Amino acid sequence: MREHVRPTAAQAQINLHTVLQLVAAGRLRCSQTTRRPAAATVAAIAEVLDDGDFYPDEPIAAFAWPLLLQAGGLAELASGRLQLTDRGRAALAKPAAATIRQLWRSWITTTVLDELTRVDEIKGQRAANVLTSVKTRRKAVATALAGCPRDEWIAVDDLFATMRRKRETSPTIARSERALWKLYLVDPQYGSLGYSGFADWPILEGRYTLAVVFEYAATLGLIDIDYTDPAGARTDYHDNWGSDDLDCLSRYDGLLAIRLNPLGAHALGLTGNYQPPASTTAPERTLKVLPTLDIVAVGDPTAADRLILDAHAEHTSDRVWTVRANTLLAAVDTGRQLGHFVAFLTDRATHDLPAALAVLVDDVTTRATRIRDGGLVRLVECADAPLAALIARDPKLRTLCTLVGDHHLAVPVEHEKQFRRTLRTLGHTIATPTG
After folding, report:
1. Which sequence spans correspond to the domains of the chain?
2. pLDDT tens across 200-209, in order?
3. Terminal alpha carbon distance of the chain
4. Which residues contact 261 (CB under 8 A, 6 or more apart)?
């Protein structure tokens, strides 16, 4: 692979909304235990990233996005599938730069992942009392990034040299000299990093730094990057025993230089406001909305735009989506707000929206508010109507339950403990089902 320079800020802002749309569509799954994305999820994200992932066959941004969204509270796991939180749904309608700033700040303090585990060739990381606090290490890298010159390229080796000079910017990896002996390449005895020179700063602290800045800072668009194929890009580990068969020590070895951009300066708290380049402020008008409520793509909609259209309309042909009452109701049922869809069409359409669309949206919005989710409840059956009425009218219990019919009470799950406790003061309790 030839050397490649990639500005990341504009792409990251596009990718944020695209991945949020994938989450809203219910297409992303992660391990309930590790919270890492499944292989199919990584592939789905890589397919829609603006200009693709950094490498075609080595997921970096596609791996990072689900973890960043979870750490930032924009998405959460439910039965192994990511779903948007209230904060995530709100982020769909907000400028991406503010959300990216929040995501980076959340990532600095998260424990969802230790980036060193992504450096697969360094073994022994799971042994007890080996690694230092990941939060402390990540903060050191963030401090080093904040000290980089703005809008100027800095070679990775120069960044390493700068970081090593100060304790607050050097992300010490091993807890002690003894802990170093538990880390190794290939073989735990002969390849141990405890041998003199085997754990030089670039091998441990340097590889950790590369993982943070390449996989997370670059994915969020904080730094522009100059990179090449990781195979053969760095030779600093070649003297280690067992390294002869390793083309690289990490998937991040190809990072050559970084440049702190205006979005990064904003996310790192170095500037108050972020003003995106004029060329990125207005979306391209690629849609025509017909009076028949067919939406025709007259240009090339982005991946995020296609996901929004798929969520609100039926894809009836290659470049046509049709809006119907049932497609809008389905969108509302997944937590989407139709006002955001109308705003999206207003921004993307080549003309004023037809009146028929406003009528349909108003009608569906009205229907969608006539039935309300009251939340989960415990249904309690009473032996007779007088007992149910007595409980429902009790001054202390009436705020904790609702009479349903003549014999039943609905108790919100968040009030169940208090309801049971107060019910006992009346001389009653809830029988446990048997059989």
Report:
1. 4-267, 287-368, 377-425
2. 999 999 999 9
3. 67
4. 7, 8, 9, 150, 151, 221, 222, 223, 224
